[in-house]
Amino acid sequence: MPRLYDLELSGNCHKVRLLCALLGVPVEIAPVDFMAGEHKRSPLIDKNPFGEIPIFEDGEVTLRDSQAILIYVARKWGDESWLPTDPASMAKVAEWLFAAENEIARGPNDARLHDKFGYALDLKLAREKAHCILSLMEMRLAKTQWLALDRPTIADIACMPYVAISHEGGVPLTPYPAVRAWVERVKALPRFIPMPGQE
Amino acid sequence: MPRLYDLELSGNCHKVRLLCALLGVPVEIAPVDFMAGEHKRSPLIDKNPFGEIPIFEDGEVTLRDSQAILIYVARKWGDESWLPTDPASMAKVAEWLFAAENEIARGPNDARLHDKFGYALDLKLAREKAHCILSLMEMRLAKTQWLALDRPTIADIACMPYVAISHEGGVPLTPYPAVRAWVERVKALPRFIPMPGQE
User: Fold this and answer.
1) Which domains does chain A have, with CATH numbers?
2) pLDDT band, very low/low/confident/very high, at A71 (cuts 50, 70, 90)
3) CB contact, 8 Å: A50 with chain B?
4) Angle CA A155–A157–A161, to nearest 5
5) How far apart are CA A130 and CA A124, in angstroms?
6) What is the pLDDT of residues A167-195, one digit of tens each?
7) In the prediction, which pLDDT does A16 show?
C-alpha cells in the first residue's frame, strides 16, 4: 500500500488524500508532527530535501510536490479521464496544476498561512493575489462546469482545497458565485472526503 | 505553423523557443511589446486572461504558462524521452516543472525582475529563495547529469533559463559547480539556442 506523509490541516496533503479517495486507492496515512519540524529532519528530509510535505511513497518511488503526486496517482490508478495524455487535453489540465502551484499557493494559501499559522509574510499582497486568481477562476467557471475540461480532472483536485478554505485567510468567496458552485460540485463527487474547514 | 507570443528577454519565453529548437519544430515568433503592456490588452488578454506571456497558439489550441506549453510541445512533437508517460517517470519530470513554476520563479527569476526590470518586490527574500533552490539543485546535480531522469527532459528545459542568468539578479553561480556544469550540458545539446545573458 502506498504511504502518504501527511498533515491533516494541509491543503496540499488533502489534494492527495482526496484524489486517492475518489479513485478508491487505499493509502497508509503517516501523520507528520509539522509544528515540531519533523519534515525538516531525518528521515523525512532525506526523502524530500525540499523539507516539505506531502511526501508519497509507493514501492521504490518517492515523490514530493502535491501536484506531481497527483500526476503520479492519476497515471497509475486513474484513467484518461483524470489526466488525459493527448497533447491539448494534458496541457489544459497542466495549466491549472501550475496555477495551483503558483497563483493559488501565493494567494489564498499564503493568506491562510499568515492568519491561521502565523507565518511572517506580506498579507496584503497575498490577499490581492487571492482575489486576482479567484476573479480569473470566476470568469472561467461562469462558462464551464470544471476548470480544464468538460469533466472533473486533477486540475480541479489541485485547485479546490485552498480555494474552499480561503475564508481562513480572510478571503471570503462571497463575490465569486461560480467558484462557490464549483466547490460544491467537487464536494458532490462520489467518495469525496473533506478536510477541516471545508465542511 | 504554431505561433509564440514572445519576449526575447523572458526566460519563460526562452523555454518554449528552446524546446521547439531542440525538437526541430518551426515556430512563428510574434514579438510582444511588453513594456507597453501589450499583453494586458486585447487581443492578447483574450488569449490569456492571466495577462502574461508566453502564449502559444497551434490551430485551435491556445495555451498559457510556459511549463504547460512545454508539456504540449513535448507530447505533440517530442517522443517519450522528453516527457515519458509512465507514472513514475512523468511524476519525476513534473517535480522539476513545479520547481520551475515555484521555487525558481520566486528565487532567481524574481531577483532578476527586481534588478534588471525594476519590479517592486522583496529582493532579499528573492535572493534567499534563489540560494535555497540552487543549493537543492547542486545537491541533486552533484549526483546526476540531468535533473529528473538519466537523460535530458523538459525538466531541464524548464529550469535552465533563469538559473543560467541568475547573475542578472545578483545571484552568481560561483558556489554551485554542479549547477554550472549542468548549464553547460544543456547548452551543448544539439540545436541549442541561447537567450540574451546566457552567451
Assistant:
1) 3-77 (3.40.30.10), 87-187 (1.20.1050.10)
2) very high
3) yes
4) 125
5) 10
6) 999 999 999 999 999 999 999 999 999 99
7) 98
The C-alpha atoms of residue A17 and residue B74 are separated, in whole angstroms, by: 29
ipTM of the complex: 0.97
Is residue A66's pLDDT more than 80? yes
CA-based max dimension of chain B: 47
Residue B71: closest C-alpha in chain A: A91
CB contact under 8 A, A94 and B136: no
What's the pLDDT score for residue A79? Answer: 87
B141, B159 in Cβ contact below 8 A?
Answer: no
Whether B172 and B183 have beta carbons less than 8 Å apart is answered as no
Nearest in space to B127 (alpha carbons), one of B169, B182, B85 = B169
pTM for this entry: 0.98
Q: Taking CB atoms and an 8 Å cutoff, what residues of chain B touch A140? A: 49
**Buried-state track A22-57, b at ≥16 Cβ within 10 A, e below 16:** beebebeeeebebeeebbeeeebeebbebebbbbbb
What is the distance of C-alpha A37 from the center of its chain?
Answer: 21
Would the CB atoms of A95 and B136 count as touching at under 8 Å? no
**Residue ranges of chain B whose pLDDT lies below 70:** 199
How many A-B residue pairs are in contact by the CB < 8 A criterion? 94
